[in-house]
């Protein structure tokens, strides 16, 4: 039986741990993340450090489906529907210009350059609408009872809601995010000190809006 010195064993264990960490880092570097606004254009870059490009293929991965956007090989370019009027290839570096973006364009994009060498890169694109001014209203604000202040965004998806009372940030645990458009601030036992000016800030990767509401608690304080 082959025995290893404790120091050798420690080195072997560390090496085994570093391999998956290195692989995870390589995957992270290969994945680009981009955010763009509806109606705008975005340039998705191809793999770097490629001196000679012989073929390029761009795909859009949405859910379990894969849609080929374009294929380029031997100076022949084929752009597939529904991208024919919106997709443009920079053959010198393999980058893709996508115009007139829609929310349905969100998803993962994969480019493969020089098929035999399988040089590929993955880009995560999130296409967003700007958020509208939040609408605020209160519900059930009676002394010694539970109540709520609600904040709703009608247009656009809000990824983050931030609440303030009289200009001071409220702890995140005071509220809960029901969806991409609604956040609820919970007042467990409404009291006089809960009266004041509440503001809700709704934001996503391209925009933010804030609205305030004066809140009063009815009943005997």
TrEMBL record:
Q: In this protein, which residues make up the domain named Ig-like?
A: 130-216
Q: Where is the signal peptide?
A: 1-24
Record Pfam families: Ig_3
Q: Does this entry carry the keyword Signal?
A: yes
User: Where does this chain mainly localize?
Assistant: membrane
Q: Which GO terms describe its cellular component?
A: cell-cell junction; membrane
Q: Which keywords, in A-to-Z order, does the entry hold?
A: Glycoprotein, Membrane, Signal
Residue ranges that the Swiss-Prot or TrEMBL entry lists as coiled coil: none
Compartments annotated for it: namely: Membrane
Name the PANTHER family for this protein.
HEPATIC AND GLIAL CELL ADHESION MOLECULE, SIGNALING LYMPHOCYTIC ACTIVATION MOLECULE
Q: Quote the protein name from its UniProt record.
A: Ig-like domain-containing protein
Q: Name the species this protein comes from.
A: Bambusicola thoracicus
